[in-house]
């Protein structure tokens, strides 16, 4: 009743349903009998509510049509929690086995954010609905973990929840008050693996969005062992999310460069990339490219002539930087 009157108490109702499922299983009641009793109780409660409105507020009986939807959605949520808690105590895995948590995590990572289901997931996962979370998406043969590996671990104040995917893993991190950079240090990305990290999100309802951003960051990785944060790859994320616009950007900005032979084109694009990485220092770029700084300048001047853009003009520099990201991310020379 309190959950109906105050929606912020939906979690309390779910916790009671979860505890009831555990208790009835421990007492030996079969699941079918428990579910029947719960449904009968819900029906009795609903009939009592309708009768009370008819007696005390007959002019508002028509509003019960709208209330019915919320009421039975609430009952369905608690019925699911009750059933899962009962099964947890009566089949194979022990209650503390983290693999029981995976269906709820996968639903959240898919973007399932119905308020009732979120409150149920929070109960099942024993996680706060509102807190600081981030998602890391790992891909590659070395990111696959054994099927019996621990799902939930605590490392330096950050709770890591591992969720297997066909091509790797997703890691849901409850950061609490820890900085996001600490997560980068905890999640190891070694040979045969690439990773993408989302920004911080403020609750379970946004884990689906966090997973999408982590996968976007993952797509910007160019070599194994790299963990890319979407906050550091915003421009690459833009061009990766719209391949049609990326292709148009390459055509309009790098048109004549793309007509060069592969070796010549790669030389110019590599020089631009290294020069950008060196914060526009031709001397440092020359050291990394094993050539004189004047050679770097000559290559960049040639690039400017071919593209009709100038690196000392801010808007032209933005165009060339985005075009370089698009070129790399959409099949350019590696």
Task: List strands and helices in order, with pairings.
Blueprint: H1 2-5, H2 10-27, H3 31-56, H4 64-90, H5 102-109, H6 115-125, E1 133-139, E2 152-155, E3 158-165, E4 168-174, H7 180-186, E5 194-197, H8 207-219, E6 226-229, H9 234-241, H10 243-258, H11 262-277, H12 282-289, H13 293-307, H14 314-329
Parallel strand pairs: 5-6
Antiparallel strand pairs: 1-4, 1-5, 2-3, 3-4
Helix pairs in contact: 2-4, 2-6, 3-4, 4-6, 9-14, 10-14, 11-12, 11-13, 12-13
Average per-residue pLDDT, rounded, comes to: 86
What general form does the structure show?
A: elongated
Number of strands: 6
Low-confidence stretches: none
Distance between the termini: 62 Å
In percent terms, what proportion of residues is strand? 5-15%
Instruction: Give the % helix.
Output: 55-70%
- With strands numbered from the N-terminus, the spatial order across the biggest sheet is 2-3-4-1-5-6
Radius of gyration in whole Å, from Cα? 28 Å
Query: Helix count?
Result: 14
The H/E string reads: HHHHHHEEEEHEHEHHHHHH
Which structural class should the secondary elements be placed in? alpha+beta
Could you describe the largest sheet, including whether it forms a barrel?
6 strands, mixed
Describe the protein's architecture and organization.
With 334 residues, the chain is an alpha+beta fold. Helix content is 58%, strand content 10%. It has helices spanning 2-5, 10-27, 31-56, 64-90, 102-109, 115-125, 180-186, 207-219, 234-241, 243-258, 262-277, 282-289, 293-307, 314-329; strands at 133-139, 152-155, 158-165, 168-174, 194-197, 226-229. Strands 2-3-4-1-5-6 form a 6-stranded mixed beta sheet, sandwiched between helices. Helix 2 (10-27) crosses helix 4. The longest helix is centred in the first third of the chain and has 27 residues, at 64-90. The radius of gyration is 28 Å and the shape is elongated. The N and C termini lie far apart (62 Å). The relative contact order is 0.08. The mean pLDDT is 86.
């Amino acid at each position: 009743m309190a959950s109906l009157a105050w929606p912020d108490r939906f979690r309390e109702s779910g916790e009671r349903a979860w505890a009831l499922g555990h208790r009835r299983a421990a007492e030996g009641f079969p699941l079918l009998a428990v579910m029947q009793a719960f449904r009968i109780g819900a029906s009795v409660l609903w009939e009592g509510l309708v009768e009370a409105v008819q007696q005390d507020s007959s002019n508002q009986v028509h509003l019960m049509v709208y209330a019915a939807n919320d009421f039975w959605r609430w009952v369905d949520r608690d019925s699911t929690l009750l059933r899962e808690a009962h099964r947890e105590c009566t089949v194979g895995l022990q209650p503390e086995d983290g693999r029981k948590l995976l269906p709820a995590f996968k639903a959240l990572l898919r973007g399932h954010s119905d308020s009732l289901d979120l409150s149920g997931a929070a109960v099942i996962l024993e996680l706060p609905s509102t807190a600081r979370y981030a998602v890391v998406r790992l891909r590659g043969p070395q990111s696959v973990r054994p099927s019996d590996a621990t799902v939930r671990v605590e490392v330096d104040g950050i709770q890591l929840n591992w969720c297997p995917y066909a091509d790797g893993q997703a890691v849901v991190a409850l950061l609490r008050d820890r900085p996001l950079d600490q997560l980068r240090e905890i999640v190891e990305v070694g040979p045969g693996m690439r990773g993408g990290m989302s920004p911080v999100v403020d609750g379970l309802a946004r884990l689906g969005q966090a997973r999408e951003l982590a996968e976007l960051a993952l797509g910007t990785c160019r070599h194994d062992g790299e963990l890319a944060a979407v906050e550091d790859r915003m421009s690459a994320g833009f061009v990766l999310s719209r391949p049609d616009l990326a292709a148009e950007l390459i055509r309009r900005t790098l048109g004549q460069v793309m007509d060069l032979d592969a070796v010549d084109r790669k030389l110019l694009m590599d020089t631009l990339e290294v020069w950008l990485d060196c914060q526009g220092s031709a001397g440092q770029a020359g050291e990394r490219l094993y050539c004189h700084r004047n050679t770097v300048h000559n290559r960049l001047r040639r690039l400017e002539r071919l593209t009709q853009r100038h690196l000392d003009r801010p808007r032209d520099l933005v165009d060339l930087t985005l075009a370089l990201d698009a070129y790399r991310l959409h099949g350019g020379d590696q």
